[in-house]
Amino acid sequence: MGVSVSTTATDISVSVNDQSISASVGGGIGPQGPAGAASTSAAGVSTLNGLTGTLTIKAGSNVTVTTGTAGLTISGSSGGASSWNDIADKPNLVYSVAGRTGTVTLTTSDIGGYVAPAVSSVAGRTGAVTLSTSDISGYTASAVTSVAGRTGAVTLSTSDISGFTAAAASVAPVQSVAGRTGAVTLTTSDVGGYVAPAVSSVAGRTGAITLTSADIGGNLVSSVNGITGTPAIVAGTNVTVTTASSSITVAAGSYSLPPATTSTLGGVIVGSGLSVDGSGNLAVNERLLTALSSSSTSATTAETSVASVSLTAVANDVIRGRVVASVTNNSGASCTYTWRVKLGATTLLTLSNALAANSSARTLIIDFAVNVISTTSQVAGAWMAIGFNNLGATISTASGTATETVSSAKTLDMTFQMSASTGTPSAPQFTFLSAIVERSKG
Question: Global pTM?
Answer without folding.
Answer: 0.40
